[in-house]
Amino acid sequence: MKLGKEEIQKIVLGVLLLFGMVYSYFNLLLGPLVARQDAYGKSIKGLGPLTATAKSQIEKTKQMEKEAPTVAMTVYQVNAMIPAGSPVAWFPTRVADFFKRRGIDKVTTRLNSESIDKRYAGYRKMTWAIDVPRVGFVQFASAVAALENEEPLIEITNMQIEAGREDVETQHVLLTVNNLVKQ
Amino acid sequence: MALHLNLFHEIQKTKALKRRDPLKISFYGLAAIAIAFAGYYFLQLLQMRTLVEELDKKKADYDKLAPIAKTSKKRDDDLALKVKATDDLIQRIEGRFYWAPVLEKIMTVVPRDVQVIRLSADLPNDGVQRCAVSIDGLSAGSDPRKVAEQLRTALADTFKPKFKKVTSTFRTLEDGTEMVVLDGKQVPTATFAIALQLYVTDPTPEKTPTRLRR
Q: pLDDT digit of tens for each residue in chain B (214 aa)?
């Protein structure tokens, strides 16, 4: 069959229409739709870990909340060991009373310095010098043991023990201690 | 034989031409392809709708959880800080250096022929948890230096089981000028100063100097 000029023109027109339709379909309809599908898919995938993280965070906090009373109790116990008021008012008296109960008189306590240690939020560290002019070594060692057991917030950092010049049985002791007080 | 004449041949030819019109055939083909494309497109639309619904559901879930998680995070941070501070507090209380056992041991180690004149002890703040004790004293006996040496070694031996590392060294050891009476006898004396280091934690090993290459 021989195609005429008019028929060839029609065939070319048909082919052009086909190309136009295919191009329009993929570029204007299917392409954007698939792109949106991909974007939605990515969003769904991205939300998965976010939701899981949020859930685990909530769970973690619940666990922490369970531990909170223990922490609060510890803080409460520590705070209960610190009397109210200015430490300069109560600490020297407390130390003097402590040593007096153990038969050691004339103990003088003075404040050396105070600082804030970032590790202990809500507390400040005070450094004191405790001067014990006359004490027997055994009596003093026993008092130190009691001090360490009864006063957990006190830490002895330095100790100077010197034999008495007039009385060799007694010593002159100078203690440097740290204690924590409320801020 | 009768002659048969087709008087409609032109009409029939026109009809046949119309039947195989390429433009018409193209339109049919295009229509078929368009229907297939449209079908596929609608399938994709359905899939898209499912995705949108799923995304909306997940977004709603997340939107519900996000503020709670944010509040939880804040609370968690607060609690973590409190827990850390409490742990540090407990560590401070429980990790204190206890002096009473040290004094007790020194008391048991010092023999009757030694007089401790001065004892100073310190917790140096140099990163290593240790106690530096300095003992100044006077030893007496027929060989006062030996008495002082015995005290030095006894100190090291007594503290070794309790501490990670113990060093006991003489800072000074000199013959004394004065004589003392011990058990009714005049005996010479020696003055000494012992430096005792008690390491609660392992000290970091000292760096050995590297040999220079020539």
A: 677 777 788 888 888 777 777 777 778 888 898 899 999 999 999 999 999 999 999 999 999 999 999 999 999 898 888 888 888 888 888 888 899 999 999 999 999 899 999 999 998 877 678 899 999 999 998 899 999 999 999 999 999 998 999 999 999 999 988 888 888 888 999 999 999 999 988 776 555 555 544 4
Q: Does some domain include residue B1?
A: no
CA distances from B61 to A180, B58, B76, B124 (A): 48, 5, 22, 57
The answer to whether ipTM exceeds 0.85 is no
CB contact under 8 A, B68 and A58: yes
Chosen from A63, A81, A130, A157 to mutate, greatest number of chain B CBs within 10 A: A157
Q: Among B36, B61, B96, which residue terminates a domain?
A: B96
- Range of B122's domain? 99-199
Interface test with A, best of B17, B52, B58 (most A CBs within 10 A): B58
Question: Which chain B residues contact residue A141 at CB under 8 A?
Answer: 100, 103-104, 107
Rounded Cα distance between B23 and A171, Å, is 124
Are B81 and B18 in the same domain?
yes
* Interface contact flag, A41 B88, Cβ < 8 Å: no
Q: How many domains does chain B have?
A: 2
Task: State the Cα–Cα distance between residues B162 and B181, nearest whole angstrom.
Answer: 36
Whole-prediction pTM value?
0.70
Which chain A residues are closer than 8 Å to B45 by Cβ?
Answer: 33
Q: Are residues B121 and B172 in the same domain?
A: yes
How far is it, in rounded angstroms, from Cα B146 to Cα B160? 21
What are the CA-CA distances from residue B60 to residues A42, A53, B51, B71, B144 (Å)?
Answer: 16, 16, 14, 18, 88
